[in-house]
Amino acid sequence: MAINLAFRKEVQGVNMLIRVLLLLPLAVGFGNAMAEESDPKYPGTLLCLKQNQQFGNVTCDGTYRHHLQGVCIDKKAIYWSFTTTLVKTNLKGKVIKKIEVGDHHGDLCHHNGKIYVAVNFGRFNDPEGNADSWVYVYDADTLKEMARHETQEVFHGAGGIGYRDSHFFVVGGLPDGVEENYVYEYDGEFKFLTKHVIKSGHTHLGIQTATFAHDRWWFGCYGEPKMLLVTDADFQLLGRYEFDCSLGIEGLPDGRLLSASGRCEKDKGCIGSVRVVLSDAKAGLKYGIAEEGLKDDRPY
Fold first, then answer.
1. How many structural domains comprise the chain?
2. What range does the domain containing 113 cover?
């Protein structure tokens, strides 16, 4: 009995040693990933894991005079454009900073520590133009205004903006009867480069929101029903779907996206929220949960 007991203890000790040796590489890898998160040479594997855990369904604290126009994110914050109020919250929706801005601040995007907002002070959707299109730039940390860039080429009014490969892409309004949409491309200094055409058919008031994520463009549009346009990187239409992301669409690094929604009540104001969405073969996007985040059901 004493010999068997001693033998069992020795086996247990060996098993424990084996477990430690097996877990050691994982611990080292986790430490390396922590270091890599801030290293631009690495794409941020741990960041993807952390964002998969952190980004979820969020409501922005507070009520605002005008409705939500768009959202964007960085590693630590969500940015919300409520037409005349620019809001920065943490990932739980708690307000960190907010400022009053000119009417009409539309959709927005984040790049390199700055927030870029599509702005129009003129008329939207006018067949004769009469828009006054700009991109305003804000410091992502403080929301202090940093620059203003004219984008008068956006003929029917700048309403949305996305970023890809060092260039900015501005979308906007559309008059009735026009059966295609337009995307205006600018370099990093906002020198106009070209106008792209999306053979989308008519969408009510054009395109409201835009983001480039997971190798394709996602565009949210008004209408009854509200529409989602999906194109490839060169704006060739891949699908047109009945899905509402007209108040904001933003990519996450794990294959998911965030879709914004909101509502306004008389004498109370407007609210906004974001929900996790996944690509879907039939609907274009569908509401999802974190566990489904790596599933890819794209038809394209």
1. 1
2. 70-252
